[in-house]
């Protein structure tokens, strides 16, 4: 299992965290999503993670992955 960390911009509240967790959690292979609202850090764990799919899920939730 691997963990990939993303920095997500635009999250401001608990609802934002829930949206990101829900969308990213639906990506195939994802087994866990840990979101730190303060820093914007999103740790995604799972097997054979599809980076593009995780990024698309974050965008689908309405947020951006910082470069």
From TrEMBL:
Pfam family, one: HMA
A GO term for molecular function: copper ion binding
Alphabetical keyword list: Metal-binding
Stored InterPro entries: Cu-bd, Heavy-metal-associated_CS, HMA_dom, HMA_dom_sf
Keyword Transmembrane helix part of the UniProt annotation: no
GO biological process, one term: copper ion transport
PROSITE patterns attached to this UniProt entry: HMA_1, HMA_2
HMA domain location: 2-66
Keyword Ribonucleoprotein: no
Name recorded for this polypeptide: Copper ion binding protein
């Amino acid at each position: 299992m691997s963990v990939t960390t993303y920095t997500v911009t635009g999250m401001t509240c608990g609802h934002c965290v829930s949206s990101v967790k829900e969308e990213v959690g639906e990506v195939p292979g994802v087994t866990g999503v840990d979101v730190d609202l303060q820093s914007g850090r999103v740790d995604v764990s799972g097997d054979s993670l599809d980076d593009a799919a995780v990024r698309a899920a974050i965008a689908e939730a309405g947020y951006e992955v910082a470069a």
